[in-house]
Amino acid sequence: MAIQVSIVEDDEGIRESWTILLNGNTGMRCISTHSSAEEALEEIPKEKPDVVLMDINLPKMTGIECVKKLKEICPKVQVLMLTMYEDSDQIFESLTAGASGYLLKRDTPAKVLEAIEEVTKGGSPMSPKIARVVVQYFQQKQPSASSAMDVLSKRELQILDLLAKGFRYKEIADQLTISFDTVRSHLRNIYEKLHVTTRTEAVVKYLGGN
Q1: Which domain, by its residues, includes 107?
Q2: Of 160, 120, 164, which Cα lies nearest the Cα of 28?
Q3: Which of the two ends of the chain, N or C, has the fewest CB atoms closer than 10 A to its terminal CB?
Q4: Do 164 and 77 lie in a common domain?
């Protein structure tokens, strides 16, 4: 079944181009577009998409506020933030509000499609530049911690290191010559051992313990 996607973006041209992109892919379908956060909060709970592409800079209520309210109503929906800016505060606020990933609008169409697919499989896709900003943000905010890495295997440490460098799950699989599913299996083990639930938290612990 095709992944159902809704778009929240105030620029009509961008909405149209994303709609064409999604509907041109056999595995995805754009089921709705919305020009404001207010409209999205009214309609998306009825439409029940799998993934929402969310612009940050919307006219009245911001995309970050919209994500927080939307996740309260529809906790299972996956939200990907798309923005023009690599702003560390906005990235952090988006992730804590409930966004599952964060991309730049200038990312290639192929990367956006890959991110949509990845987020439905439990991933937290980020542009490499965004991942680096996140890492730097937490390096500045996070105090030094005693190493929690002793509980991880060599392979798990390799995967965490690549995550911290901004690699996507598929890129990690290619780099280590293992399958995508094997990467996901290792990640589940990493999360369990480090007592975390997200990629960002895992990377923070890794950076704080090394």
Answers
A1: 3-125
A2: 120
A3: N
A4: no
pTM over 0.70: no
Phi, psi of 28 (to 5 degrees): -140, 160
Quote the number of domains for the chain: 2
Q: What is the pLDDT of residues 60-74, one digit of tens each?
A: 889 889 998 998 888
- The three-state (H, E, C) secondary structure of 80-117, written as one string: EEEECCCCHHHHHHHHHHCCCEEEECCCCHHHHHHHHH
Per DSSP, the three-state class of 53 is strand
Give the residue ranges of the chain where pLDDT is below 50: 143-146
pLDDT score at 125: 77
**Cα–Cα distance between 140 and 204 in angstroms, integer?**
11
Q: Is residue 133 part of a domain?
A: no
pLDDT at 137: 64
Q: Note the residue count of the chain.
A: 210
132 domain-assigned: no
Residue 144: per-residue pLDDT: 43
If asked whether residues 78 and 119 sit together in one domain, one would say yes
Nearest to 21 by CA among 8, 30, 33, 32: 30
Query: Tens digits of per-residue pLDDT, 91-135?
Result: 777 877 888 888 888 888 888 888 898 888 887 777 776 777 666
Query: Which residue among 125, 158, 174 closes a domain?
Result: 125
Same domain, 64 and 96: yes
Q: Are 93 and 63 in contact (CB under 8 A)?
A: no
- Do residue 35 and residue 114 come from a single domain? yes
The CA distance from 201 to 208, in Å, is: 10
